[in-house]
UniProtKB/TrEMBL annotation:
Annotated keywords: Exocytosis, Transport
Entry's transmembrane regions: none
Residue ranges of domain Exocyst complex component EXOC6/Sec15 N-terminal in the record: 49-218
A family per Pfam: EXOC6_Sec15_N
Organism, as annotated: Labrus bergylta
Protein name in UniProt: Exocyst complex component
Residues annotated as signal peptide: none
Length: 805
């Protein structure tokens, strides 16, 4: 057992030694550690084994050295022999080297020179190469400076872009390139500032030139419209021939302005047609737009431009305070607006997106609302119809001009209807003054005609036809006064004036006809009617003038159908057309005539009252004078002469006036008898009063105005006649007995009236008896009469009380 363990130990030690001999020294540690990990005292046995192995190797080395020693000695001997030769050879080599160094020193110098030249040549080539890279950069930068000095900013920006993207990156490591690169953003900002300054100058320029641009555009639009109107007129007459200054059948738009092309055969064709570019230099805005586009800041530029143009639009739309005073004020206002939008239209079509159709439409809608408000306000101040008419023409040209550029103008034509109403109002005011002047200068007497020429002159001005008057010899008189043909002529002038406004409104003949008729109706029913009514009410207009006014209105009424024909001939619209407005002249002149008739009745009554006020009755007279009162005879003579003037009036008017006068006279006389301030009346006064009433009845029976049947006119005095007969006959028994009977002789006598007059007579009798004893003789002769009066008074009072209850 012990022998086996010893054998295994020896074998293991042998393996370890072999491993140590064959393994790298750095890996010996684990092998040695295994020796100590084995059996105790194993390392001692291993050390013994190791010592034995070392001794064994020493013996092998010693044997080998002994074996090779002689050869080593021989080699050393040979080496010693060679040393002398080596020293000799070393001397030779040293000498050869010296001589070689001396011989190659010049070659070395030349070689170094060649190397230096080669280095210089290489450096020069490198320098040339680098300069070839830098020269284009410097050339481009110099070109950039020249472009900036010549204000070619768009090209300068393109040059900057090439510098940054192509040239500078090739030589970016050089300092001068770095300085260039640092300067480029500053140069861009300078270009932006300069271009923005140019844009501001441009905006200022177009603000100044808008007036001229608008004037040119409106003038061209007016010429185009005038030419079209002439062509349409010639075509409508059926005799159209192509004019020498043919427009070649077309009108085109260039640079935002309407241009008419002609053949150059007329003098007008020699005039150069100006466009927006002729009046405004648009290059700054193009240049600025391109610059901002290149700089990538186009949106900022667009917003700035649009903002500034909006501000300018608001300034343009602000009118001058006194614009309404002259047509030039309106013309300047319209020229500026047209110029503004012509420029915007040009910018819209000449640039891509700087302004859009939506932007221009927004501006136009804002401007249109402001324009309409301004025109409404300022046109309301216009009192001159000629100025309103010129304003209308300007609005039409303004609308046509902008419509040619694609702007909607329907609201402007709608505004023209409001302006038309204002125009009609100014016309009505003007014609009111004309009518008043005609009425003031009229002599209100028939027109005297001495010769055939005078007659034809009057008839040419007024449609008068009367067979009987035409048969009369000259000189003769026409029934109407001088104001009638003047009024008729002025109405026609008004129609012409009203028609002027309807021109160029793009309305049909039917609409124009309707507008003319409506405005003429306003003239007749409002202006002329008002003037007639005021004329009739004037205090200095007497009965003769009123009679002539009635005659005048009759003839004017008859002439209304000729006015209708006059309008029809102008508009070529048949009066039978559906919804055609009729003239209201008939009602106007009828109303005026009725007012004149009423005024005649009123003035007649006033004149009668004036005569009545001259009455000076002696109410206590004992007996009458035996003749009618002087005032009454004067009144009757006045009425008789007045009614003779009424022969030219329509029969019913004269009859009504005569009946009204007689009734008023009868009423006034009755009121005179029943005046409460008159306390007593004598029978002599009753008799005198009866004589006056008899004269009134005689006047009525003399038929001062023809046409009354029987004693119709005398019936106006029937109340007075029955009352006076009752007192003159003293027929109280019959009155009281027949009261209330239809066949009563005193049917028209009211009990209250009879009572009032009887009491006055009774008081008069009492007063007279005290003075001259006439009543005392009466009482002595017939005391029963006093009792009769008292009885009648009581019965009349009972009748009056019965009526009141």
């Amino acid at each position: 057992m012990a022998e086996n363990e010893t054998l295994e130990c020896i074998t293991e030690h042998e393996r370890i030694l072999q491993e140590i001999e064959s393994t790298d020294t750095a890996c010996v540690g684990p092998t040695l550690r295994s020796i100590y990990d084995d059996q105790p005292n194993a390392h001692k046995r291993f050390m013994e084994k190791l010592d034995a192995r070392i001794r064994n190797h020493d013996r092998e080395i010693e044997k080998m050295c002994n074996f090779h020693h002689q050869g080593f000695v021989d080699a050393i001997t040979e080496l010693l022999k060679v040393r002398a030769d080596a020293e000799k050879l070393m001397g030779q080599v040293t000498d050869t080297n010296r001589r070689l160094q001396e011989a190659g020193r010049e070659v070395t110098a030349q070689t170094e020179e060649v190397i230096r030249c080669r280095i210089q040549q290489r450096n020069m080539a490198t320098t040339v190469e680098k300069l070839q890279l830098c020269i284009p950069v410097l050339e481009m930068y110099s070109k950039l400076k020249e472009q900036l000095e010549s204000k070619r900013y768009y090209a300068a920006l393109k040059t900057m872009e090439q510098l940054e993207k192509v040239y500078i990156p090739r030589v970016s490591h050089y300092r001068f390139c770095q300085i260039m690169a640092e300067n480029l953003p500053r140069l861009r900002e300078e270009i932006k500032e300069i271009s923005m300054s140019d844009l501001k100058d441009f905006l200022e320029s177009i603000r100044k030139h808008s007036d001229k641009v608008g004037e040119t555009a409106m003038r061209q639009a007016q010429q185009h419209r005038t030419f079209n109107s002439a062509v349409a007129k010639q075509a409508s007459t059926g005799h159209y021939t192509k004019p020498m200054y043919s427009l070649n059948g077309r009108t085109h738009t260039h640079n935002g302005l309407m241009i008419e092309e002609d053949s150059g055969e007329e003098e007008e064709a020699d005039e150069e047609v100006l466009t927006a570019q002729d009046l405004v230099d648009f290059s700054p805005v193009y240049r600025c737009l391109h610059i901002y586009t290149v700089l990538g800041d186009r949106e900022t530029f667009e917003n700035y431009y649009r903002k500034q143009r909006k501000k300018q639009a608001r300034l343009v739309l602000q009118p001058q305070a006194n614009m309404h005073e002259t047509v030039e004020g309106y013309r300047r206002y319209f020229n500026q607006i047209v110029g503004f939008f012509v420029v915007e239209d040009h910018i819209l079509h000449a640039t891509q997106g700087l302004v859009t159709r939506a932007f221009t439409d927004e501006l136009w809608n804002m401007a249109l609302s402001k324009i309409i408000a301004v025109l409404r306000t300022h046109s309301s101040y216009c009192e001159d119809p000629d100025l309103v008419l010129e304003l209308k023409n300007l609005i039409v040209i303004f609308a046509d001009t902008l419509q040619g550029y694609g702007f909607p103008v329907n609201r402007l034509f709608d505004l023209l209807f409001e302006v038309r109403d204002q125009y009609n109002e100014t016309l009505l005011k003007k014609w009111a003054l004309v009518f008043r002047e005609i009425f003031e200068l009229d002599n209100y007497s028939p027109i005297p005609v001495e010769t055939e020429e005078e007659y034809k002159h009057v008839v040419s001005r007024f449609p008068f036809h009367d067979t009987e008057i035409e048969k009369q010899d000259f000189p003769k008189k026409l029934p109407m006064s001088q104001s009638v043909p003047q009024i008729y002529t002025q109405v026609k002038e008004f129609i012409y004036a009203s028609l002027k406004f309807s021109e160029s409104l793009h309305r049909s003949s039917t609409e124009i006809d309707d507008m003319l008729r409506k405005s003429t109706n306003l003239l007749l029913t409002r202006t002329l009617s008002s003037c007639l009514q005021n004329l009739i009410k004037k205090p200095h207009i007497g009965l003769t003038e009123l009679v002539q006014i009635i005659i005048n209105t009759t003839h004017l009424e008859q002439a209304c159908r000729y006015l209708e024909e006059f309008i029809t001939n102008i508009t070529n619209v048949s009066p039978e057309t559906v919804h055609t407005t009729r003239l209201y002249g008939l009602s106007t002149f009828k109303d005026a005539r009725h007012a004149a008739e009423g005024e005649i009745y009123t003035k007649l009554n006033q004149k009668i009252d004036e005569f009545i006020q001259l009455a000076d009755y002696e109410w206590g007279m004992a007996e009458s004078d035996g003749r009618a009162s002087g005032y009454l005879m004067d009144l009757i003579n006045f009425l008789r002469s007045t009614f003779q003037v009424f022969t030219h009036l329509p029969g019913k008017v004269a009859q009504t006036a005569c009946m009204s006068a007689c009734k008023h006279l009868s009423t006034s006389l009755m009121q005179m008898l029943l005046d409460t301030e008159l306390k007593q009346i004598s029978m002599g006064a009753i008799q005198q009063f009866n004589l006056d009433v008899i004269q009134c009845e005689l006047f009525a029976s003399s038929e001062p105005v023809p046409g009354f049947q029987g004693d119709t006119l005398q019936l106006a005095f029937i109340d007075l006649r029955q009352l006076l007969d009752l007192f003159m006959v003293w027929d109280w028994s019959t009155y009281l007995a027949d009261y209330g009977q239809p066949t009563s002789k005193y049917l028209r006598v009211n009990p209250a009236t009879a009572l009032a007059l009887l009491e006055k007579v009774y008081r008069g009798m009492k007063d007279t008896s005290k003075k001259n004893n006439i009543f005392s003789q009466f009482r002595k002769n017939d005391r029963d009469k006093q009792k009769l009066i008292e009885t009648v008074v009581k019965q009349l009072r009972s009748l009056v009380n019965g009526m009141s209850s």
